[in-house]
Amino acid sequence: MKTELVERQRGGMWLWLLQRVSAVVLLVSLITHLVATHLFNLGKLSYDNIDQRLMSSFFITMDILLLAAAIFHALNGTRMVLLDYKFAALRGRRLLDGALLLIGAAAFAYGLWVLWPWIVK
Amino acid sequence: MPEAKLRINRYDPAIDGPLSGGRRTGRYDEFTIPYEKSLTVLEALFAVQEGFDETPSFRYCCRSSICGSCAMYINGHYRLACQTNARTIEGTITIEPLPHMPLVKDLVCDMDAFFAKYELIKPWLIRNSKAPEKEIHQSPAWRSKLDMPIDCILCGCCYSSCPSVWYDEDYLGPAALLKTYRFEVDSRDEARRERLPYFDNERGTYRCHTITNCVEACPKELNPTEGIQWLKRAAVRRRLLGRWK
What we know:
The complex is a heterodimer.
Chain A: H1 3-8, H2 13-39, H3 47-54, H4 57-85, H5 90-120
Chain B: E1 3-9, H1 13-16, E2 28-34, H2 41-51, E3 71-74, E4 77-80, E5 93-96, E6 103-105, E7 108-109, H3 112-120, H4 140-144, H5 157-161, H6 163-167, H7 174-184, H8 192-199, H9 213-217, H10 224-241
Parallel strand pairs in B: 1-5
Antiparallel strand pairs in B: 1-2, 3-4, 3-5, 6-7
């Protein structure tokens, strides 16, 4: 393994750290979501019910965090697996990173668009 | 008189042609070695060479589990041949080279990539300050942090067992990273900034997914996974918090 290869492969610390941060955020926001949606509101789910809940700034914040954490954690995890097998070379890695960034941005934008009416209320 | 039945992996590039990657021929030779009280697998291999067939090739040196030369895959386990007693193995003793390593001949693997990665991380004490008049002081507490990583004998078992190495030939591997940990955790070493880029990268610590095959494979019962996770946390401490100790 050459020194130049090591130099070109810098990076990875932030993604490793954020994978752990997003895991904690995911845990908290997912439990909140599951408890609020599937425990307290079992049998009562309807558009009005969800509308009421999303009017609360606490729940809308939790949902946005859940959206961001889930997208990041899933795509970063996919990236980690793919880097183990392919895309290890720098050029391939950059292409993969670009593609995942686009997918993540698109997914987040779509989720925000769905939540937008409650964000602006 | 007890007998040890050996089944030895065979490969000769002159006969079998080149083998790429970690491939094997599937060819084995069998020998039965009588012994009196005790017989290590390494002694059994000597007995094969001396009494039956002088051609099987294998590495050895110290015969006392400290050099790491005789690391092999014995009955599905990573072992040092000099440390493995035939009495403890029931049935036929199947002796194979370290899996997933390129083969030179029979039980001898190509260790070039392994040692190249080891050299890359600067595995020596680096001091930038002026040498003290007498010894470099190190407290017992700091010295105890070296107890585990200092025992590594560079046998290659952990490297051979690591799935991340199997799929990415440029991944540094658990042995090189354990040696990195050995020097990074040494209070006398002053190469923190110099060594950081060599392990804090996509081919370094972040390719470790704590599979812990290395922990299971190590004949010295060391824990490379623990060392690698320490290095990941050290990178965060240094780059985010500015704590370089």
